[in-house]
Amino acid sequence: MKKAVFKALSLFIILTFIIIPLTAKKKPAEVLLKGLDRFINEMMAEWNVSGLAISVVQDGRLVYSQGFGLRDVDKGLPVTPQTLFAIGSCSKAFTAATMGILVDEGKLEWDKPLKEYLPTFSLKDDFAAERMTPRDLVCHRSGLPRHDAVWYNSTATRQELFERLRHLEPSKDFRTTYQYQNLMFVTAGYMVEQITGTSWERFVRNRIFMPLGMSNSNFSVNDSQKAPDFALPYMEKDDKVIEIPFRNIDTIGPAGSINSSVTDMSSWLLLNLSKGKIGDQQIISESSLKEIHSPQMISSQSYKYDESFYSMYGMGWGITSYRGHLMLSHGGGIDGFTARVALLPRDSIGMVILTNLDGSPLPSIIAYNVADRLLGFDQVDWNSRIREEVEEGKKEAEKAEKEKDKDRKPNTKPSHPLEDYSGDYEHPGYGVISVEKKGDNLQAEYNSIPYTVTHYHYDVFDFIYEKFDRTFKVSFLTDLKGNIGSLSIQLEPAVGPAVFTRLPEKAMMDRSFLEKFVGEYLIGEATATVFVKGENTLFISVPGQPEYELVPYRGTTFNFKMLAGYSIEFILDESGEVTEAKVTQPNGVFTATKKK
């Protein structure tokens, strides 16, 4: 009898503690997300975020979608789930998806040499250029650091940015180190264009946006501002939130120009959680999406909190573990906007959080909180953790600010009058910096951004971008003739300063200006011939020697290209006619008389 009672009791325990929990129903998302509204409002107030929108999907359906705060503070316009925000680098996953679609169609292979698709692709590192593959483009292992000054606010075309890559310094060996790199994603989009014969934007719209019903999404802040429901960009400055201008980044679209709403982005979440399929339509194959979602590169070899794990990067997605659950995510930030997209693929959970405040950590705080709620865990106080990190960052910045002038030499002055520093200076990768004397001071412009210029010491000046409180130290360098011939500026912290060479006056490039020097010049017993070749290039030839290109220097002086220490100055009479030329060589100066 006792044995029978014991067996019955044992069976009851098994049913109670094992079988019943296994068959218990999961709480609905609506129950688990109860109180999220209040949490978001509290966090927005703490972090001074004007507007925010969020959508959450689970088990193939939209379970939460709401707008908070204001998309336009002055007009008091509210954020809705349809409000357009810039999603910044969350666009990168779309570029990876376009490549996956081309792989499905047999038009692209992840691991073929990139030169098979872009024959003119070139880098300073020839080894990397020859071995670079489409896969390498989208997992941040090219060897190049960010070099964001190349594209930020630049008017250069996508092709021009592609052609500038060969002039940019690498900081690591190819495939050895994770270094976030926007220009490689631009190259990936440019490759998609070359393969398909259409723009990256049109391909994304036709192959992803339209099938997913993302009809409000676009690729330019110019288009966003024509929409009926869009958020204005804001930033925090001097403890105040201020409206700032939209930043157009159309040229680097494949790296970050998409603008979308949480309503549209919820369809993107569902696509990534349903193995590339929406309804009965397979947008991208399961195998290609799996490859995109798979680790390609270790991005962090340490982790700070026990809830997370080492970070990796797939193709357009960051990959880690959150509290034992696989998490894919990506942040996005461009002037006035911060975004976060996160997936928990094995739990069929996805979320997108969009805000209209520059550099805000709030999307990440909310993403972790939503994950905690839907996974059924106690909520980690990510707000306090990130607040502490932000405060530590401020202290480090304050310390750096105090020490920035420790090497400054007082009571010095420039070696030349300020007007001598005026001119255009060019770097083949970074473009042109213009310096001009206005009144008693210098002003500068780079990529259409104005800089206030103040003297620091000797021939070093501060270039100050006042809107974002950024300062660059610029060193002007003299050439062998004692003139200001170049400037040096640290635009990329991971490599040495970039040297911009002074350009000649624009008049020296006009054919009408060059033609006055054309003719024959008698130097000793030899006759040298000066002539124009092409549209506006001056050459000189001497019997028995090769032709030499003459590079405009200043005034009527030209340097011999590829011949150091050689130059020629054309001498004009009072009527402006050339009478002779002074040829400078390492062994002296020689006079050449122009034949009439």
Overview of the molecule:
- The protein contains 16 helices and 31 strands.
- 27% of the residues lie in helices and 30% in strands.
- The longest helix is centred in the first third of the chain and has 22 residues, at 2-23.
- The termini are far apart.
- The strands form six sheets. It has a nine-stranded antiparallel beta sheet, sandwiched between helices. The chain has an eight-stranded antiparallel beta barrel with strand order 16-17-18-19-20-21-22-23. Strands 24-25-26-27-28-29-30-31 form an eight-stranded antiparallel beta barrel.
- The protein is of the alpha+beta class.
- The radius of gyration is 31 Å and the shape is elongated.
- The protein folds into three domains: 29-380, Beta-lactamase (3-Layer(aba) Sandwich), CATH 3.40.710; 418-503, Beta Barrel (Lipocalin), CATH 2.40.128; 507-594, Beta Barrel (Lipocalin).
- A hairpin with a 2-residue loop joins strand 30 and strand 31.
Give the helices and strands, then pairings.
Elements: H1 2-23, H2 29-32, H3 36-46, E1 51-58, E2 61-72, E3 77-78, E4 85-86, H4 92-104, H5 126-131, H6 134-137, H7 158-164, H8 182-196, H9 200-212, H10 221-224, E5 234-237, E6 240-243, H11 253-256, E7 259-260, H12 262-273, E8 277-278, E9 281-282, H13 286-292, E10 297-300, E11 311-313, E12 318-322, E13 325-334, E14 337-344, E15 349-355, H14 362-375, H15 382-403, E16 423-427, E17 431-438, E18 441-446, E19 449-457, E20 460-465, E21 470-478, E22 484-489, E23 498-502, H16 511-514, E24 519-523, E25 526-533, E26 537-541, E27 548-554, E28 557-560, E29 567-572, E30 578-585, E31 588-594
Antiparallel strand pairs: 1-2, 1-15, 2-3, 4-7, 5-6, 8-9, 10-11, 11-12, 12-13, 13-14, 14-15, 16-17, 16-23, 17-18, 18-19, 19-20, 20-21, 21-22, 22-23, 24-25, 24-31, 25-26, 26-27, 27-28, 28-29, 29-30, 30-31
